[in-house]
Every structure is written in structure tokens, then in C-alpha cells.
């Protein structure tokens, strides 16, 4: 019994393997940045604005990536590693970064160096980039990714949530992103239709009132 509990505890810990998911352009400028904060960490200092920008707290057990200034400095050193070449896997203590360059974009996944699963991180990064490929229906390049940034952000959220890897199958990620989007469009249309109907009703009423 005790053994079993201990095992499940340690496997829970290993779920928190992603510190950040980043897309930097060919100049190292941020296109997308998601920093993850596991639930057991205190969310002090987080604000809705920060969350809306897709920039969360520092990653699992990682101080120093909470503030924008720290994140920018980190992204600068990540980009330095990419520029110097030397493959896709780079230790950047206390982080491990895996990078993939596609046309004019660099996709980066960050995990803790001490206990991250390289293969799992690599597979997750592939799933993320492949799902974007499916969603954008064409070549991945900065222009396309910026145009479809809403889809790319949703794909990121379907791939990793709170530092937990949710899905490593690109088709499954793409499917989950495309489905809710259709629903959202329906709701927007319905609300718009109602709003238009209400506006024209209100105008008619105020015209009548003026005529009285
Ligand atoms: C989290 O922060 C709140 C105040 O923002 C504090 O009262 C609480 O004790 C903190 N919890 C932990 C686990 O640090
Ligand atoms: C990471 O994934 C890519 C693409 O799937 C593959 O080519 C590469 O060999 C993988 N690297 C490692 C270290 O698993």
C-alpha cells in the first residue's frame, strides 16, 4: 500500500516536465511564449493581463522566469544557443532546451535539466509543430503563424497545460483546436444576430417616441 502511494506520488511529480514553450523568430524576437506554473506553486504576482498575454509564471520549481525582464533575458540566452548551432538539444542549467528551426521560426521546449525526459520533451515539441502544420494547412513561417496566432495559442494549450504534457499526437491536438473554434463562431453569430435585432428594435422604439 505504502509503496503504491509512493510510486504514484513520484509519477505525479514527473508529469510536471515542461517549463516553457516558446516560438522565437529569426532575430530572436518573441512570437509566442508560454511559461508554466504548476498548481502547487503560489500564484502571487500573477495577473489576468499577464495570463492574457500568454506569459505565465516561472516553470516547475524554477525561480527567475516570473518577470518579463527575466523571461526576455532567458529567451536571449536560448537564442544564443540556437545561433551557435550544435544540434537541437542544449543544456542551459538549470534548464534543458530542445529547439527546432522551421523556415524563419525557432520552436523551443524547456524542461528542468535535473529531471526532464528528453524523449518526451522532443516528442511534445514535434507534436506541437506538426499540429501547427496541420492547422495552418501549409508551410510554417512567421507570416502564417502570426496570421493564425489564435490557433497556434490554442494548439499550445492543447499540448501543454500548467506544465503537464496533455497530448503528443499532432492530429489529436489539431482536431481539438478546430472543433471548439467552430462552436465559438456559431455563438458569435448568434449573439451578433440578437444584438442586431435588438438594436433595430430599439431604434424603432426611439423613433416612435420622438414622433409622439
Ligand atoms: C500563497 O500566497 C498567499 C498570499 O498571497 C498566502 O496567504 C499563502 O500562505 C501562500 N501559500 C503558500 C503555499 O505559499
Ligand atoms: C527529436 O524528434 C525529431 C523529429 O521527430 C527527430 O528527428 C530527432 O531525432 C529526435 N531527437 C531525439 C534526441 O529524440
3D architecture notes:
The chain has one domain (16-179): 2-Layer Sandwich (Beta-Lactamase). It has a 5-stranded antiparallel β-sheet with strand order 2-1-5-4-3, sandwiched between helices. Strands 6-7 form a two-stranded antiparallel sheet. Helix 4 runs antiparallel to helix 6. 31% of the residues are buried. The chain is built from 7 helices and 7 strands. The protein has helices spanning 2-15, 48-52, 68-84, 118-136, 142-147, 149-159, 170-211, and strands spanning 20-25, 30-35, 89-92, 95-102, 105-112, 160-161, 164-165. It has 212 residues and is an alpha+beta fold. Residues 42, 44 line the site of one 2-acetamido-2-deoxy-beta-D-glucopyranose. It is a peripheral membrane protein.
Furnish the topology, listing elements before pairings.
Elements: H1 2-15, E1 20-25, E2 30-35, H2 48-52, H3 68-84, E3 89-92, E4 95-102, E5 105-112, H4 118-136, H5 142-147, H6 149-159, E6 160-161, E7 164-165, H7 170-211
Antiparallel strand pairs: 1-2, 1-5, 3-4, 4-5, 6-7
Helix pairs in contact: 4-6, 4-7, 6-7
Bound molecules: 2-acetamido-2-deoxy-beta-D-glucopyranose (NAG) (2 copies).
One 2-acetamido-2-deoxy-beta-D-glucopyranose binds at residues 42, 44.
The CA-CA distance between the termini, in Å, is 82 Å
The CATH architecture category equals 2-Layer Sandwich
Residue share in helix: 40-55%
**N-to-C SSE series?**
HEEHHEEEHHHEEH
Low-confidence stretches: 1-14, 39-61
CATH class: Alpha Beta
Strand residue content:
15-25%
Total individual domains: 1
The overall pLDDT average reads 77
Tell me the number of helical segments per DSSP (H or I, 4 or more residues long).
Answer: 7
Bound ligands, named by name, code or SMILES:
2-acetamido-2-deoxy-beta-D-glucopyranose
Based on CA inertia axes, which overall geometry fits? elongated
Q: Using DSSP, what is the number of strands?
A: 7
In the sheet with the most strands, the strands line up as 2-1-5-4-3
How does the major sheet shape up? Answer: 5 strands, antiparallel
> Under CATH, the topology is which?
Beta-Lactamase
Derived structural class:
alpha+beta
Based on CA atoms alone, the radius of gyration comes out at: 22 Å
Pfam families: Clat_adaptor_s (PF01217)
Keywords: Cytoplasm, Cytoplasmic vesicle, ER-Golgi transport, Golgi apparatus, Membrane, Protein transport, Signal, Transport
Domain AP complex mu/sigma subunit: 69-178
GO cellular component, one term: Golgi membrane
Amino acid at each position: 500500500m505504502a509503496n503504491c502511494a509512493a510510486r504514484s506520488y513520484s509519477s505525479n511529480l514527473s508529469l510536471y516536465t515542461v517549463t516553457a514553450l516558446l516560438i522565437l523568430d529569426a532575430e530572436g524576437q518573441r512570437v509566442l511564449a508560454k511559461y508554466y506554473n504548476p498548481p502547487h506553486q503560489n500564484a502571487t504576482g500573477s495577473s489576468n493581463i499577464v495570463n492574457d498575454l500568454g506569459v505565465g509564471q516561472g516553470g516547475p520549481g524554477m525561480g527567475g522566469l516570473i518577470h518579463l525582464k527575466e523571461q526576455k533575458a532567458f529567451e536571449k540566452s536560448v537564442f544564443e544557443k540556437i545561433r551557435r548551432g550544435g544540434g537541437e538539444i542544449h543544456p542551459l542549467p538549470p534548464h534543458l532546451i530542445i529547439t527546432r528551426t522551421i523556415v524563419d521560426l525557432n520552436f523551443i521546449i524547456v524542461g528542468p535539466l535535473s529531471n526532464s525526459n528528453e524523449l518526451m520533451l522532443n516528442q511534445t515539441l514535434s507534436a506541437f509543430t506538426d499540429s501547427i502544420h496541420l492547422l495552418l494547412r501549409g508551410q510554417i513561417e512567421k507570416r502564417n503563424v502570426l496570421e493564425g496566432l489564435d490557433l497556434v495559442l490554442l494548439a499550445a494549450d492543447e499540448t501543454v497545460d500548467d506544465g503537464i504534457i496533455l497530448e503528443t499526437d499532432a492530429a489529436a491536438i489539431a482536431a481539438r483546436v478546430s472543433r471548439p473554434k467552430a462552436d465559438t463562431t456559431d455563438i458569435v453569430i448568434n449573439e451578433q444576430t440578437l444584438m442586431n435585432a435588438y438594436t433595430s428594435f430599439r431604434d424603432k422604439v426611439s423613433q416612435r417616441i420622438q414622433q409622439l
